[in-house]
Amino acid sequence: MISVKLPTLLRAHAGGEPQVQVEGATLGEALATLGERYPDLVRSIRGEDGALHRHVNVYVNGEDVRYLGALETPLGDGDTVAILPSVAGG
Amino acid sequence: MTFTEDQVRRYARHILLPHIGGEGQRKLTEASAVVIGAGGLGSPAAMYLAAAGVGRIGLVDFDAVDVSNLQRQLLHDTSDVGRPKVESGRDRLLALNPTIEVETYRTPLTSANAFDILGPYDVVVDGTDNFPVRYLANDASQMLGKPLIYGSIYQFEGQASVFLPGEGNPCYRCLFPEPPPPGTVPNCAEAGVFGVLPGIVGSIQATEAIKVITGAGEPLVGRLLTFDALAMEFTTVKLRWDPDCPVCGKVPTVTELIDYDAFCGLAPGEAPPEAERAPEVPA
């Protein structure tokens, strides 16, 4: 199982949950599976073309997936995916 | 410089402190910092910098104090409602520490004034509340070679980092290459904000500004700190320099300041605004 930690900004798209569990061998697979349950959540992480938004960062075990292989980033049991959207409040 | 008797008493707890000491306190006293936004983040950031004796502090904000600000913006009092924030902010800072200088800029930060406002300071603290000014403050700080102390909040969560211009160090654009489409991220007025949250994140910004000025410890460079008040969790993730960054990358394509209203109005994937492309030379 892979844990996906959600920021407050996106929790409303996942029934208010701060964290959800998902399966998938890659980040792309995990997002596709997650999209079946929470389509709005995944739409806020990646665009119509499937690519990750440039204003939302995704980290696997603390490392930005842009430097790991983006959607091809391999995932394994116990990995943690964290979603970090750009926010501007001050 | 030698400290006056008042300074020795005022800064005694810093002068005694390992990593700061007399030398660090002297650096603080001789340093200057400009705080963009005299709101939730700017309040604790500016107050701690003033208390620490940072010799000259600039406050940038065009807004006036609203009663709804007082739940978190400790620079301002109930009696300040309706006053320009930079004026009540200056009063608060000078009441804390009358030995420093406070300069006020009651204006929005724009591409036309950013160099003039930020240029005379050693450190820039980003306490603004919108994407266009965050990108502008980043670009201007990078071009001026000034450290930018970043903080940002939403509801119960905050982020902080230090963007130190220099080879291999990331900037705000390396963190978030593009702003979200307009309307997708509500602001504090629309979404609410936990009053203590900017107190914590703004205090972290003051911490980092003081560390950058004094050279104490390891600044938050190449790392992004995130804070979740509900879970009471701090997390740090790696933040890498992007060699393709249009501002701090190997071949910068943004080499002059631009106003980001248009950029921030674009949907992801759309072409960048005219101003971001290389200027065409008329035939």
Give a short account of the largest sheet of chain B.
8 strands, mixed
Count the domains of chain A: 1
**CATH level-1 class of chain A:** Alpha Beta
Order of helices and strands of chain B: HHHEHEHEHEHEEHHHEE
Structural class of chain B: alpha/beta
Strand content of chain A: 15-25%
Beta strand count of chain A = 5
Determine Rg of chain B (CA atoms, Å): 19 Å
Through-space gap between termini of chain A: 36 Å
Large-scale geometry of chain A: globular
What is the fold-level CATH name, i.e. the topology of chain B?
Answer: Rossmann fold
Report the CATH architecture of chain A. Roll
Main beta-sheet annotation of chain A: 5 strands, mixed
| Number of discrete domains of chain B | 1
Q: Kindly identify the CATH topology of chain A.
A: Ubiquitin-like (UB roll)
Q: What's the total number of strands of chain B?
A: 8
> Superfamily at the CATH H level of chain A?
Beta-grasp domain
Radius of gyration of chain A over alpha carbons?
12 Å
Describe this structure in words.
The complex is a heterodimer of chains A (90) and B (283). By secondary structure, chain A is α+β, with helices and mostly antiparallel strands. Chain A has helices at residues 8-11, 27-37, 39-43, and strands at residues 2-5, 19-22, 56-60, 63-64, 80-85. Chain B starts with a helix and ends in a 45-residue tail after the last strand. Helices cover 31% and strands 16% of the residues of chain B. Chain B is an alpha/beta fold and 283 residues long. Chain B has one domain (31-276): 3-Layer(aba) Sandwich (Rossmann fold). The interface between A and B is large, with 25 and 46 residues.
